[in-house]
Specification:
CATH architecture of the largest domain: 3-Layer(aba) Sandwich
Number of strands: 28
Distance between the termini: 26 Å
CATH superfamily of the largest domain: MoaB/Mog-like domain
Strand content: 25-35%
Low-confidence stretches: none
CATH class of the largest domain: Alpha Beta
Largest sheet: 6 strands, mixed
Bound molecules: adenosine monophosphate, magnesium ion
Helix content: 10-25%
Shape: elongated
Radius of gyration: 31 Å
Strand order of the largest sheet: 7-4-6-5-9-8
CATH topology of the largest domain: Molybdenum Cofactor Biosythetic Enzyme, Chain A
């Protein structure tokens, strides 16, 4: 049986590259850029007024002027209006172009406006104040967002401002989520006394959705020929198969054999961990990958976060940043397996991320998942973990 670290290494050696595609920029949230986005003109594109008030020439202040005749009013979007005399100003709004004859903007708060005149009520005026200068943020041709960046709401806005209505983003793998087990019925069905409703597929699908990945789901029975037929179809039509169930030692756990018969070569089966020990991982000759998680909902959930999401990130060129928290209670775990402990998280008054264990009833207890926020990965070599020790966490 291999360790968690060995399993992780084997999986990360299998990162894929699924190419790129063009999508409307509004649908690109959460995707990864496959092109550099450049400013089509300077940002800002003109000397932009940043306060509502008046525009003047600072020379007027130096020459002792403190009252200005309002020559015109200039809104954002208007053509700039020039002044001809030192005793003149233009009443001007935020977002307007600073007229060439002005170099300073005085906000309403520093003025008294009456009978077509603006009079200063402050001495604190600096040449060039309240102006956002042309090209100060980016010059035309500068990269505003680059290859490999995750598209965030801020990037969507930036992309909109430079007129890119379509974006080239990294393509996501086509993923099939396959649940297996004869005891499982559809959500809308009423299970008999011996059955349960299937939930894993929905959990996995919604986790992937949070990562911008729309996957298809299907269910297969515990019947070898049917399993082979359905998996064969999936291997032809998808890049990655995420299975849950049917990989343990049970009499009806036919998945590993079926996969091997379909030329999916096992890269490992069983990992020294709890939950999720029966985890099976393999690669088809043509490069398709199969993550076959044990069916216990907590095991599926843990393996998805600990192994699949880092693989997905790596395949898209994104880093999976390690996160750590402080164990808030002592905890003992006495099996030769790496324990992934379910914890609730909070920040204490010293801004430390504290992890409080919430013990469920093993990997079948997924009601507990809803009460927790992360798995804490405890070191394999030890059995006792003290309050105050720091360990890695996997948030979900
Ligand atoms: P297995 O890995 O197939 O032995 O399944 C382990 C446990 O997880 C069994 O109690 C199954 O009934 C349960 N299980 C398997 N698949 C699902 C699923 N899709 N949704 C909910 N429970 C499941
Ligand atoms: Mg099963």
């Amino acid at each position: 049986m291999i360790t968690v670290e060995e399993a992780e290494k084997i999986i990360l050696e299998q990162v894929g590259d699924y190419g790129a595609e063009i999508v409307p920029f509004e649908l690109a949230l959460g995707r990864v850029l496959a092109e550099d986005i450049k400013a089509d003109r300077d940002l800002p594109p003109f000397n932009r007024v940043t306060m509502d008030g008046i525009a003047i020439s600072y020379d007027a202040i130096e020459n002792g002027f403190s009252t200005f005749r309002i020559k015109a009013t200039q809104a954002a979007g208007d053509h700039p209006v020039d002044i001809d005399e030192h005793n003149e100003c233009v009443e001007i709004m935020t977002g307007a172009v600073l007229p060439a004859s002005s170099d300073t903007v005085i906000r309403y708060e520093d003025l008294e406006m009456r009978a077509g005149l603006a009079t200063l009520v402050t001495r604190e005026i600096k040449r060039g104040q309240n102006i956002h200068y042309k090209g100060n943020d980016k010059k035309q041709g500068d990269i505003v967002a680059g290859v490999g960046e995750l598209v965030t709401p801020a990037i969507i806005g930036l992309v909109a401002s430079v007129g890119e209505s379509e974006l080239r983003v990294k393509k996501l793998p086509r993923v099939a989520i396959i649940s297996s087990g004869d005891e499982l019925v559809e959500v809308t069905e009423t299970p008999s006394a011996n059955q349960i409703r299937r939930s894993n597929g929905y959990t996995v699908k919604s986790v992937l959705k949070q990562h911008g990945l729309e996957a298809d789901t299907l269910h297969i029975p515990d019947e070898p020929e049917e399993i082979k037929k359905r998996l064969s179809f999936c291997l032809e039509n998808y890049d990655v198969l995420l299975l849950s169930g049917g990989v343990s030692m049970g009499k009806f756990d036919h998945i590993p054999k079926a996969l091997e018969e379909l030329k999916v070569n096992v890269l490992f089966h069983k990992v020294q961990q709890r939950p999720g020990k029966p985890f099976w991982f393999g690669r088809h000759d043509d490069g398709k990958l199969v993550f076959a998680f044990p069916g216990n909902p907590v095991a599926t959930f843990m393996c998805l976060h600990r192994y699949f999401l880092p693989w997905l990130n790596a395949s898209l060129g994104l880093e999976t940043k390690s996160q750590y928290a402080v164990l808030n209670n002592r905890y003992g775990f006495h099996l030769p397996l790496k324990c992934f402990l379910q914890v609730k998280l909070h920040y204490n008054e010293y801004c430390q991320l504290m992890a409080t264990p919430v013990e469920g009833n093993g990997s079948g207890d997924f009601a507990n998942l809803a009460d927790t926020e992360a798995f804490m990965e405890l070191p394999l070599e030890r059995n006792e973990f003290k309050k105050g020790e720091v360990f890695k966490v996997w948030r979900f």
